[in-house]
Amino acid sequence: MAEQETTRVHLVRHGEVFNPRGVLYGRLPGYSLSDLGRAMAERVGEALGDRDIVDVAASPLERAQETARPLADRLGLGIGTDPRVIEAGNRFEGKTFGVGDGSLKRPEVWPLLVDPFRPSWGEAYVEIAARMRAAVADARARARGHEAVLVSHQLPVWTARSSYEGRKLYHDPRRRQCSLASVTTLVWKGDRLVAVEYAEPAADLVPAKAGFGA
User: What PANTHER family does the record tag this protein with (predicted)?
Assistant: First the structure.
């Protein structure tokens, strides 16, 4: 029997964002990479630039497109835009989030926090998983026998990984293994998912107290 072809889809989280106000920016426009974030994007390009990548796509948000650019330029590829890998919808967009000066001190937002298993404050985990898996399936089809890249955001990447690995989608955000500019790789032999790999090509650039948002 002939050996089955190997296909890899790399789920890349974008680099650090310029966010001096410290808000949850979510899907808001205008949030681009910081200087450090651009350095992280270059690291992603260096880490993946010699691989057999034939397709690069990214979330429509600026920070994802900017993270994809160094890699796409190295490979001589265009960047496709896939709205299915956009950040999760969140009712706290544009606000700070915390007990002190953040939104949590305001009673009017407390009803949003009643169901962390869905979650009640934003897009349901099952919906995130479904759209991410659909985007991955299309990327895998475009790159069959080769490799593809999807540049996305922390929660969608982690939710997709949890779905593929058969874990509950509800989780403690502090326990996500999805650092800035990280690469989560799904590996198929034929149509069988055989491995999930993880790498942090910009690990030494990540601030010690980097947040778990977007």
Answer: BROAD-SPECIFICITY PHOSPHATASE YOR283W-RELATED, PHOSPHOGLYCERATE MUTASE
The phi-psi region of residue 145 (left if phi > 0; otherwise alpha if psi is between -120 and 50; otherwise beta) is left
Return the structure tokens found at 190.
């034929």
**How many whole angstroms separate alpha carbon 35 and alpha carbon 115?**
37
CA dist., res. 171 & res. 159, Å (int): 9
DSSP 101: S
Could you tell me the maximum CA-CA distance found in the chain, to the nearest angstrom? 64
- 6-205 is classed CATH 1.20.120.80: no
- Which of 89 and 136 is assigned the larger pLDDT? 136
Cβ pair 15, 36 in contact under 8 A: yes
Torsion of the alpha carbons at 140, 144, 147 and 153, rounded to the nearest 10: 0
DSSP string, 121-156: TBS-HHHHHHHHHHHHHHHHHHTTTSEEEEEE-HHH
pTM: 0.87
Q: How far is CA 169 from CA 120, 124, 135, in A?
A: 14, 10, 18
Domain range summary for the chain, segments of one domain joined by +: 6-205
